[in-house]
């Protein structure tokens, strides 16, 4: 890790946020208040990750200060966490610092993935629809959609990378493997998003019926697997429903052990 991977994560996050700010200003300047309002609304779910970040700071014995609360209110909490990872990696000398950096990196990877699914994914769907159905010549919506796609794919890659680091006797994947994984994730997400956008353009609200059926199938499949990552029954059902919604777009391995059979079933249903 040594700070390179967290630095790339921070750069991707910064680029995606810059693109989102530009498209918000773009809609405001052009007087497209409907798209402006919808784009701003996509920002709101990201506060779930910010609240969790504050709670995890408190659980780790770091009571949130006013400055920390302000950063999270501005949705810069993950930036603060990546800065902490980079600072810890810079002074990494012993196994204690290495474990601390790995723990910090794991926390921010999970939070980034959650934020990407709750905030970046809706933003990507919205901007992709604008480019395809409303303003095909819109350069700024197209760029921000591309940056959102990159950010979402990178969040998935970061989560996979961290999962590899947790395995005993792990080997850090080479840069070429990470690049291939990133391209695969981007291609898979892009095709799913475009398919939903074109379906919405042709059949309007029927897209909710198609997505709903897919969501139910995936949720029931997760329940059948007896996923025990969450202990409480109510939270367990909610977790399966949320992951089932994520499975409309991509596969995330939430169970330990080999996953090739589960991946095969997922793609057989989703193709």
TrEMBL record:
Q: Which UniProt keywords apply?
A: Cell membrane, Membrane, Transmembrane, Transmembrane helix
Q: Which domain of life is it from?
A: Eukaryota
Asked whether the keyword Zinc-finger is assigned, the reply is no
Family matches, as InterPro entries: XK-rel (IPR018629), XK-related_scramblase (IPR050895)
Provide the topology term for how it sits in the membrane: Multi-pass membrane protein
Q: Does the record's keyword annotation contain Cell membrane?
A: yes
Q: Which GO terms describe its cellular component?
A: plasma membrane
* Places the protein is found: Cell membrane; Membrane
| TM helices/strands, residue ranges | 34-57, 139-159, 171-199, 205-224, 236-254
Which family, according to the similarity comment? Answer: Belongs to the XK family.
Protein name, please? XK-related protein
